[in-house]
Amino acid sequence: MENNLENTTNNNKINIEYSQFDSERMRLNAGPQHPSTHGVLRLEVELDGEIVTDIIPHLGYLHRCFEKHCENSNYNQIVPFVDRLDYVSAINNEFPYVMAVEKLAGIEVSEKVQILRAMCAEINRIANHLLAISAFGLDSGAFTPLLFLFREREFALGILEKLSGARLLYNYFCPGGVRYEIYSDFKKDVKVFIDSVRLAMKEMEDLLIFNDIFIKRTEKIGLLPKEVAINFACSGPVARGSGINFDIRKSAPYSSYDKFDFDIPVVEPGKEVVGVSGDCWSRNWVRVKEIEESCKILEQGITLLPDEGSVTDGIPKKLKVPAGEVYCKAENTKGELGFYLVSNGSDKPERVRARATSFVNLAILPSISKGYMFADLIMILGSIDIVLGEVDR
Amino acid sequence: MGLLNALDNPINADGIILGKVEDLFNWGRAKSNWFLQFGLACCAIEFMAVNASHFDLMRFGNIPRSSPRQADYIVISGTVTLKMAERIKILFEQIPEPRYAISMGSCANSGGPYWQHGYNVLKGIDRVIPIDVYIPGCPPRPEAFEQAVLKLQEKISMEEIFKKRERVAQEDKMLESMLKAEENNFIENVNKHI
Amino acid sequence: MTIQEIYDLLKIHFNDDIKEITDISNGDSFITVNPANIFDILQFCRDYETLDFDYLTLISGMDSGENLGVVYHLYSMKFKHSIVIKAFVPKESPNIQSVVYLWRAADWHEREAFDLIGVVFDGHPNLIRILCPYDWEGHPLRKDYVTPQEYHGMKVPY
Amino acid sequence: MINYLKNIIKGFSTILVGMKVTFINLFRPNVTVQYPNVHPLVRAGSDKMPDNARNKLNVIIPKCTGCKSCEKACPVNCITIETTKVASIDTEKPLMEDGKKRVFWLSQFDIDFAKCCFCGLCTIACPTSAIVHSTDFEYSCYDRNELLVHFSPFNKEQVAEKKRILAEEVKQKAEKALADKQAAEKAAQEQNITDSKIKSSDDQTSANQNIQNNSN
Amino acid sequence: MENHQFLFNFISEYTGDILAGVLIAIIPLALLLVYALVAIYGELKIASFIQLKLGPMRTGKWGLLQPVAEVFKLLQKEDITPDGADKPLFNLAPFIIFLGCYAALSVLPLSSHFAPSGLNIGLFFIIAISSLAVLGIVMGGWASNNKYSLIGAMRSVSQIISYEIPAAMCILGVASMAHSLDMNVISAQQQGGFWNWYVLGGPAGISKIWLIPFTVVMFIVYFVTSLAETNRTPFDVPEGESELVAGYHTEYSGMKFAFFYLAEYGNMFVVSAIMTVIFFGGWSSPFGDFLNSPIWQIFWFIAKSMFFVGLQIWLRWTLPRTRVDQLMYLCWKILLPLSMVCFLAMALGGMLY
Question: Which ipTM did the prediction report?
Answer without folding.
Answer: 0.88
